[in-house]
Amino acid sequence: DTAVSQTPKYLVTQMGNDKSIKCEQNLGHDTMYWYKQDSKKFLKIMFSYNNKELIINETVPNRFSPKSPDKAHLNLHINSLELGDSAVYFCASSQVGAGITGELFFGEGSRLTVL
Amino acid sequence: AQKVTQAQTEISVVEKEDVTLDCVYETRDTTYYLFWYKQPPSGELVFLIRRNSFDEQNEISGRYSWNFQKSTSSFNFTITASQVVDSAVYFCALSERNRDDKIIFGKGTRLHILP
User: Fold this and answer.
1) Residues of A in contact with B101 (CB under 8 A)
2) What is the Cα–Cα distance from B35 to B25, expressed in whole angstroms?
């Protein structure tokens, strides 16, 4: 039973399209995150939600819109995809206080390729 | 502002050699937390260890050891008697107190253990 699951795992699409990545966690955690890992493996935080409330919103283009229908789900919608959006997107979850414990539980990642 | 620097982009060593991965951090806070994560070729990110700013004791866990030195703002990770299974990208990360559980990652060091 996967703790943090993301779908799809692979996504290939054309520039200008709109796409979504879904994330679900069954760990009972209150906080969920989206991280972006580029081709050089640089891992950058994008958003975090705590119990459906947006907590962290880094300087991400507003083409990216996270949505958390409940605390077990955090989806990422991307409008007007650009070549630079190609990356692996990781969803993660944690109990409140991950900034102290460091215990982030990551999904397997969703590799987005924009052509 | 918080920053994590992993100057070594890529390291290759022969199996059974010891290897140290460097991590230097910057923070203005007096209370902060440091972490190491491992990302094996399969892609998932795995939490390895945490250290808080008040605890400068070094830690050993099997073949892994961590050396935290506040005087040099470093939190280095040593693998003793490396094995091929240690091949992965290793990330050092930092969070500051009261920063909404925001964990900032370094750019990672890709470690190759050659048989």
Assistant:
1) 31, 48, 55-56, 94, 96-100
2) 11
Residue B80 CA to residue B23 CA, distance in Å, equals 17
CB atoms inside a 10 Å sphere around CB A115: 10
Closest CA to B65 of B50, B84, B80: B80
Asked if A73 contacts A23 with a C-beta cutoff of 8 angstroms, the reply is: yes
Mean pLDDT by groups of 10 residues along chain B of 115 residues: 92 97 94 94 90 86 93 95 96 86 92 96
> How many Å lie between the alpha carbon of B73 and the closest alpha carbon of chain A?
18
Task: Record the tokens describing residue A93, joined without a space.
Answer: 């979850």
Q: Inform me whether the C-beta atom of residue A60 falls under 8 Å from chain B C-beta atoms.
A: no
* C-alpha–C-alpha distance, residues A108 and A7, integer Å: 9
Q: Quick: pLDDT tens for A58-85.
A: 878 899 999 999 999 999 999 999 999 9
Taking CB atoms and an 8 Å limit, are B33 and A102 in contact across chains? yes
